[in-house]
Amino acid sequence: MYKIGVIGGDGTGPEVVAEALKVLHAVEKKFGLSFEFTHLNYGGDRYIKEGKILDDAEMEGLKAFDSVLLGAIGHPDVKPGILEKGILLKVRFGLDQYINVRPVKLYENVETPLKDKTSEDIDYVVLRENTGGIYTGTGGITMKGTAHEVAVQSMVYTRHQVERCLRFAFEYTKKRHLEKSWRGLTQDEIDKGFTGKLTLCGKTNVLTYVFDLWERVYYELAKEYPMVKTDYAHVDATCMWMVKNPEWFDVIVTENMFGDIITDLGAITQGGMGIASGGNVNPEGVSMFEPIGGSAPKYTGKNVINPLASIGSAAMMLENLGETKAAQAIENAIQIVIKKLNSMAAGKMGYSTTEVGDLVVESL
Ligand code: IPM
Ligand code: MN
Where, residue-wise, is CATH 3.40.718.10 in the chain? Predict the structure, then answer.
């Protein structure tokens, strides 16, 4: 039995999570699994009513779960930053979920804004460092309100953080191709023993301290992974290649803020926020899975938002828990359902949120 903490959160979060739970109930029967869901009402509504965000005891409480499923955090009536930092980032940091796994995969029959690109071309994973960098909030404001006001927010990385993230990335790339080499390798590269490619995305030409550290550790670790072809791209160029030649990517690893930015770009190339799932992973602890789109307040309660990203995040959770068969079954069901939808966008699917959840269950 798995104990799952469920944070529906704000806006359309609870609606999409409800569909993910529906699908998890369906795999329960089919794969002999059992889930105990605990609903946690953390989010904007509670904050407005009670002034509570997420206290230390609640944070500790999350450690008792096998995994956490999240809908979305962000409320139109709460100043930006309060809930995002107070809940989402607090959990990522507090549970030491140091990797954010964001697959960029264009399913068949999903429209991409990239001209002439197909599901053959868009199939890679971005691994975003998830507990360091600018997100640590290191810095501050002095002389606030004066003409000489100074604002500092620093990109802070320890060797420990960089090393564990890159180690995870090399291991991930290795495992991704245990059965079959990555399609993007040439015969010559395969003959040399490569099975996959890991692109370090950085900014070594300007951020000469932080990325000096990343680059050194990256090439040190690379020696232990002769099957992984090394590759480096500046973050600005990465954005360009993600649009022009997404087929060049297998696994991308990058720091927190760069990862935040490039994964929204990645998400739109795979059909948008309705379909993009992600996981905040602590390989040794409790992980949290979420659709990467926001709380979409304007669609709240309308039963029009696409739940597939949330259902996909439930599949990622199962994969993480080691329930590979059940995870794969959900993946397959998603791919079948996609073929029935007119679009991935809210209100344009041709079905309601709950109907899409039902379709996934039927396909299972
Ligand atoms: C994401 C989101 C968050 C982030 C926000 C809501 C704090 O954009 O998960 O990508 O910046 O990490
Ligand atoms: Mn983001």
Answer: 1-103+273-364, 112-270
Task: Give residues (CB < 6 A) around ligand 1.
Answer: 74, 84, 88-89, 260, 292
Q: How far is the CA of 128 from the centre of ligand 1 (A)?
A: 11
Domain 112-270: give its CATH code: 3.40.718.10
pLDDT tens-digit readout, 7-46? 999 999 999 999 999 999 999 989 999 999 999 999 999 9
Query: Of the residues 75, 88, 295, which should be mutated to test ligand 1's pocket, given the most ligand atoms within 8 Å of the CB?
Result: 88
Ligand nearest to the CA of 73: 1
CA atoms of 361 and 94, how far apart (whole Å): 34
The phi and psi torsions of 155 (rounded to 5 degrees) equal -85, 100
Residue carrying structure tokens 């964001």: 102
CATH code of the region 1-103+273-364: 3.40.718.10
